[in-house]
Amino acid sequence: MGQYSIKDLEMLSGVKAHTLRIWEQRYTFLKPERTDTNIRYYSDEQLKTILNISLLNRHGLRISKIADMSNIELSNEVLKVAQNNTKPDVLLDAMIHSMIDFDEARFEKTLSTAIMRLGFEKTFTELIFPFMYRTGVLWSTGAIRPSQEHFISNLIRRKINVAIDNQFVAKNENSKKFVLFLPEGETHELLMLFTEYLLRQHNHEVANIGVSLPYDDIDFLNRAFNPDFFVSFFTVALKDCTLQQYIDKLASSYPDKKIVIGGMQVGLQNPKLPSNVHYITTVVDLLSLIK
């Protein structure tokens, strides 16, 4: 069973902690439990309740009316809102429910519906990556269990791999060569996989080397592929050096290459970037850089 702080609930539901505290005081649907050391926490069931309540509240129902609903009435109202609704907030709540319950069928239905109605690229930029950002932050703090994060990540990875397998790259005079890799110790590859999909979709040549690449192998890759771009993402802290040291070494070793970096650690650490290193926050930024 999960144990969530009020800040965790705020991150997952989008409801401010101040508002949650007011609801806790006025209504009975939100009651924290306490650990043996008297620390307040909220359970999986309470998180799901808050997700449902915040969804209905965002779609026009007054909180006082929602608070008077039975569990069955609440579920029925959520179902009404969710049916045929592809707004990102509705789909995002459904995905969080799927993660908490390890509900593969619900996740598959949610993701397939989104892809059918929004398209593959828009589903990932407006739904998957906001979802992974929320859960990634909570995973790094221990609020989300690794098994939950791995469960969802594997399902998403499967979808991207199928999409990549169905692609055909028609190289032309505008095509560039990319080497994609994650540094040693880094295993969070979803953003890199989607980057590969999007680059191939735009007829670029991509060599995806995968996760946890030893630094010494980069020189071999440079000689083997002679890429125009190196692309890498940093989600967890590096073990053997700082992010700044890694970036500086990469930039000075390959001054004639464009080096593109992204990921949560870059935003958190805000390193000074050499002239041939470019920080992207979305894959759209990468496409703009190429143009």
Short structural description:
The chain is an alpha/beta fold and 291 residues long. The protein contains 14 helices and seven strands.
Give your account of this protein's structure.
It contains 14 helices and 7 strands. The model has no long low-confidence stretch (mean pLDDT 84).
> Which residues sit in consecutive blocks of at least 5 with pLDDT less than 50?
none
Number of strands: 7
Strand order of the largest sheet: 4-3-5-6-7
Number of domains: 2
Relative strand content = 5-15%
Overall form: globular
> What is the structural class?
alpha/beta
By DSSP (H or I, 4+ residues per run), the number of helices equals 14
Distance between the termini: 48 Å
Quaternary class: single chain
> Secondary-structure element order, as H and E?
HHEEHHHHHHHEHEHEHEHEH
| Average pLDDT figure | 84
Major beta-sheet overview = 5 strands, parallel
Q: Tell me roughly what share of residues is in helical segments.
A: 55-70%
| Rg measurement, Å | 22 Å
Topology:
Layout: H1 6-13, H2 17-26, E1 33-34, E2 40-41, H3 44-58, H4 63-67, H5 71-82, H6 88-101, H7 104-118, H8 120-141, H9 146-165, E3 177-183, H10 190-201, E4 205-213, H11 217-225, E5 229-233, H12 243-253, E6 258-262, H13 264-269, E7 277-279, H14 283-290
Helix pairs in contact: 3-5, 3-6, 6-7, 6-8, 7-8, 8-9, 9-10
Summary tags:
291 residues, alpha/beta, Rossmann fold, 2 domains
